[in-house]
Amino acid sequence: MIIQDRMKVIKQRQVAKNNFEMKLSGKLVGEITSPGQFVHIRVADSFEPLLRRPISIASIDKEAGEMTIIYRAEGRGTTILSERRVGDEVDVLGPLGNGFPVDETAEGETAILIGGGIGVPPLYELSKQLTAKGVKCVHVLGFQSADVVFYEDEFKVLGETHIVTVDGTHGTKGFVTTVMEKLGDDFATYYSCGPMPMLNAVETMYAGKKGFLSFEQRMGCGIGACFACVCQTTEGTEKAYVKVCSDGPVFPAGVVAI
Amino acid sequence: MIIQDRMKVIKQRQVAKNNFEMKLSGKLVGEITSPGQFVHIRVADSFEPLLRRPISIASIDKEAGEMTIIYRAEGRGTTILSERRVGDEVDVLGPLGNGFPVDETAEGETAILIGGGIGVPPLYELSKQLTAKGVKCVHVLGFQSADVVFYEDEFKVLGETHIVTVDGTHGTKGFVTTVMEKLGDDFATYYSCGPMPMLNAVETMYAGKKGFLSFEQRMGCGIGACFACVCQTTEGTEKAYVKVCSDGPVFPAGVVAI
Amino acid sequence: MNRLSVDLPGLQLKNPIMPASGCFGFGKEYGNLYDLSLLGAIMIKATTLEMRLGNPTPRVAETASGMLNAIGLQNPGLQGVLDRELPWLEQFDVPIIANVAGTETADYVEVAKMISAAPNVKALELNISCPNVKCGGITFGTDPEIAKELTKAVKAVSEVPVYVKLSPNVTDITAIARAVEAGGADGITMINTLVGMRLDQRTGRPIIANGTGGLSGPAVKPVAIRMVYEVSKAVNIPIIGMGGIAETADVIEFLSAGASAVAVGTANFVNPFICPTIIKELPAKLDELGINHISELIGRSHRL
Amino acid sequence: MNRLSVDLPGLQLKNPIMPASGCFGFGKEYGNLYDLSLLGAIMIKATTLEMRLGNPTPRVAETASGMLNAIGLQNPGLQGVLDRELPWLEQFDVPIIANVAGTETADYVEVAKMISAAPNVKALELNISCPNVKCGGITFGTDPEIAKELTKAVKAVSEVPVYVKLSPNVTDITAIARAVEAGGADGITMINTLVGMRLDQRTGRPIIANGTGGLSGPAVKPVAIRMVYEVSKAVNIPIIGMGGIAETADVIEFLSAGASAVAVGTANFVNPFICPTIIKELPAKLDELGINHISELIGRSHRL
Ligand SMILES: Cc1cc2nc3c(=O)[nH]c(=O)nc-3n(C[C@H](O)[C@H](O)[C@H](O)COP(=O)(O)OP(=O)(O)OC[C@H]3O[C@@H](n4cnc5c(N)ncnc54)[C@H](O)[C@@H]3O)c2cc1C
Ligand SMILES: Cc1cc2nc3c(=O)[nH]c(=O)nc-3n(C[C@H](O)[C@H](O)[C@H](O)COP(=O)(O)OP(=O)(O)OC[C@H]3O[C@@H](n4cnc5c(N)ncnc54)[C@H](O)[C@@H]3O)c2cc1C
Ligand SMILES: Cc1cc2nc3c(=O)[nH]c(=O)nc-3n(C[C@H](O)[C@H](O)[C@H](O)COP(=O)(O)O)c2cc1C
Ligand SMILES: Cc1cc2nc3c(=O)[nH]c(=O)nc-3n(C[C@H](O)[C@H](O)[C@H](O)COP(=O)(O)O)c2cc1C
Ligand code: FES
Ligand code: FES
Prior knowledge:
The complex is a heterotetramer, with two copies of chain A (258 residues) and two copies of chain C (304 residues).
Chain A: E1 3-16, E2 19-25, E3 38-42, E4 53-56, E5 59-61, E6 66-72, H1 76-82, E7 89-96, E8 110-116, H2 121-132, E9 136-143, H3 152-158, E10 160-165, E11 172-173, H4 176-183, E12 189-193, H5 196-205, E13 210-214, E14 230-232, E15 241-243, E16 250-252
Parallel strand pairs in A: 8-9, 8-12, 9-10, 10-11, 12-13
Antiparallel strand pairs in A: 1-2, 1-7, 2-6, 3-4, 3-7, 5-6, 13-16, 14-15
Chain C: E1 6-8, E2 11-13, E3 17-19, H1 28-31, E4 42-47, E5 60-63, E6 66-69, H2 77-89, E7 96-100, H3 105-115, E8 121-127, H4 138-142, H5 144-157, E9 162-165, H6 173-182, E10 187-190, E11 194-197, E12 212-216, H7 221-234, E13 239-241, H8 248-257, E14 261-264, H9 267-270, H10 274-289, H11 300-303
Helix pairs in contact in C: 3-5, 5-6, 6-7, 7-8
Residues 38, 51, 53-56, 69-72, 74-78, 118, 121, 216-219, 249 of chain B line the site of one flavin-adenine dinucleotide (FAD).
Pathway (chains C, D): Pyrimidine metabolism; UMP biosynthesis via de novo pathway; orotate from (S)-dihydroorotate (NAD(+) route): step 1/1
Protein name (chains C, D): Dihydroorotate dehydrogenase
EC number (chains C, D): 1.3.-.-
């Protein structure tokens, strides 16, 4: 169930240049059903900035009632969020949307998780859940440059991890596809989250494979009521459009017209 | 000189129902020239609330570079201000306006200081400076009811202090004039700050006496440029209007048409 | 006695609070969050004769205390609304106000005729003010004569009272209001969005794919209040006021300005529980103001 | 090379940043805070033929990300401005744009003739859009024919180029813009304030003594950007854009929309150092955008 929760900030730390990790506690955590779901955050109680910010859930600790988000402080809203301190309360709506299907990969199979920039966070909880059930995870994580790389160690603990930077300052130089080309396609499923051009490249390279992609769109309500966040679907799909917030953000490869 | 200072909150405490005392430190303190001057506070860096809030300077510690304000958290802006915590920075413009003239009362003379509600704070620094130079201060402080009375002890240390509440829950029941009637007019100067009806009553009762009144008006710029805060003057005064922010907020009795 | 009840043509409202058209879909999503029967009424998303896919994305952009939208009237079309959306809403004890849009008079008339016959549709809201579709829409809302003729044509076929939704993007909104009153409108809803634009500072391009969009949210409230005040003095039919309502105090302001009920749009995105929250807070607010029944507030500003 | 210089009729601007009329008085107060020669220009407070005391107080009210004002053109009158205000400003190396207001054509003409002869007045800004005075003002700004005639009359007597300040409270701002261009205007300044209102929730009374006021500040920026965009496509004279500018990025947005320079109003109250701050930040912003000279930004949105 979607709830509106005033969650408590219990940790806030910078994990890379302009990138922050925030741990929040509250009963909303109990409602999360799959990795890749997101929350819609009101960064301040004032009316400016007005709209909520959609941020993926990066990891969950159901027992402790805690969840972690990782976000880039770039615009007005996320910058204000980065100024929140331990003890502050944040108005969080969620969990929203449909996440990555963990059950689409069976125990013993291999999954490739491809993330770009701020698309990396939701893959962390996904990888935790996949590896926990015995799936072998290979991570391909792309960033602009070394100073914005985060969670490398955390992913390494879970499985093979390839870091790619556009400027070559860390890991492989190039794009995620540079590494993907070398990895071949001997895997059961791929999961990906990142900017549209990356998703496009991933879907194209893995054409025919089973895969799940998480999309971004500017949002209003975040719950499916305002039609702000629609994507057109490919021909042959039943609906003419899908809503990223409530039908997605994760869709099987081939559904959304990229 | 007027400066814009990001002052540090070094103390924030509630002194009565909805009334807060905030101590701020910064170089602005060095610019304060008289009690009754005020500062113009931007309560948050966002554009809502947009305008600064005018708040009187309640006391100054030049050596420590600290000043205290006392304010009622009622509307949007002051409520946000009350949520600021020690260590936060607040954008303060000041010192603004012309305060109470301390030199209008000589050593050994008596001054009556009449304050109403949030008009009480500037009288505190005024009383400190007057008593320091050997003026005998009598304080008449009016409030709505007992739960919003503040600084009673602080004023008592400085001199005779009469508390008046409208509902009689503390001190004398009635208005400041109820006490003033009993005090008679054996004093050199009166100083007053409070709501317009109170100022009106004070000026009327003390007609012919030397007095100084501090006024309130809704403000834009706070420095004299926008013409938001004007008051009409009485006939016979040279200017047709005065600006509360830059010509005031304190005017000699008889200048402003109440 | 219900201190919050308001009676308007076709609408017996438990309370004067309803979600504004386009900000609440057809109710399903918010229906997952709270009981829709709590609401005074529901203004559903604009319905057009044919299904519409709307504009390309991005369709929304944030502005200071506001937002721009150019959804482009995406909706499943008259038949879809009649078949799937309205029947689902019948489970709730709440009157529906159907927002009717079109590109020419014949569209409006056809949609109005059909949708006004649905059992739970108690009133129509004629959308002559949508700034986000290329033809029709807003032109009906800027020319008094055209607005009047359209109102007449729709009134002739509608089985329920007709409210006309006014555009704020005009020099004299009272002229349009008087025209639709003369055309037979039973009420007025106002304001729709102000036409606005934002450019991406990096590229210089409009952030919204459509170029311009409609500005809504707290930023526009002073304009809305002014217009409700002006129109309520100019006409004798009731007004449902909207534009920037985000808290209970705003409702008091709109009623004081002359609205008989209000709609909440953008604020649903900020706080999805805003409508029930306001409804819950209203009685205490009336106490605070020393007022017995909410209707005493209506048009207070005129009497002073 | 000065990367920020902009040449406009009558105005050689060191940079395209100037305080907007009414938000900077006649410069004295801000002159205590920083060197006014830093500014591109200064738009002084509206000057009328006779001294005006303005409206009763309260004259301002806060709104979400904006404010309402109804100062009512308080000013010392033409003679006072000529005798005391303009001479004081001569110490600074900064062109003055004199905002001219009146209630009838003859007033405007008289003020324009006299004030345009002052040595530091390099351009006039014809205020046909003040919403806060009972007669004149805004009516000149809502009727294209009247706006054109007034422009002509003022052009005939002015010794410096004439910019006309447009009201946003119109159905079609391009019609007014084309009219004043046809009337001989050398440039356009826009936007003046949107007419708005706020009611005190306790009493139901307008907060501003005048009833309505002019809405300004970040809240109105999307409307201003849209209008600058529309007008810059409709006319061939330059635009000085304003409405809600509060930070450097906003300047980029206005120039991209089609303004050649900008004015900052309300933001001076929020941050009295906003004009010099923006001027200081602009070169780095140009670097960030990979642009050499600021003029490359002007009307960028049209070229895409
Ligand atoms: C489902 C989903 C999950 C996301 N998960 C993450 C995450 O885990 N970490 C992270 O750093 N970012 C994530 N994003 C992107 C994040 O929402 C934007 O970076 C953020 O909204 C920008 O806000 P701002 O205040 O920095 O920028 P501003 O420029 O102030 O934003 C202005 C408006 O545009 C919207 N906006 C701007 N960029 C985007 C964008 N890329 N996507 C959607 N809306 C945008 C904002 O939400 C806001 O309404 C996610 C986006 C979506 C849709
Ligand atoms: C010179 C001067 C000194 C003051 N000193 C103090 C003080 O020491 N302590 C204190 O508690 N209050 C003081 N006030 C009053 C204080 O400025 C207002 O209570 C405060 O601005 C209200 O802001 P808000 O956010 O609570 O209300 P809101 O309702 O959010 O305010 C909305 C707008 O109205 C203005 N406004 C509302 N009430 C007043 C008012 N009474 N006077 C001026 N502007 C108002 C606000 O500044 C703001 O622009 C002083 C006012 C003036 C003019
Ligand atoms: C995303 C969005 C979609 C809207 N769609 C419609 C619509 O379909 N029909 C309509 O008449 N108004 C529509 N509106 C306008 C609102 O109903 C309302 O008139 C306006 O937003 C002002 O109210 P607000 O400030 O409370 O949002 C829409 C507004 C928004 C923000
Ligand atoms: C307090 C105040 C006084 C104003 N006085 C005038 C004026 O005298 N003449 C004028 O043309 N515009 C006047 N304006 C309008 C501004 O010049 C400007 O057009 C408007 O405020 C929009 O810009 P902003 O949002 O940056 O304030 C005034 C605005 C404010 C806020
Ligand atoms: S954000 Fe409103 S429908 Fe998706
Ligand atoms: S507040 Fe602007 S002149 Fe006083």
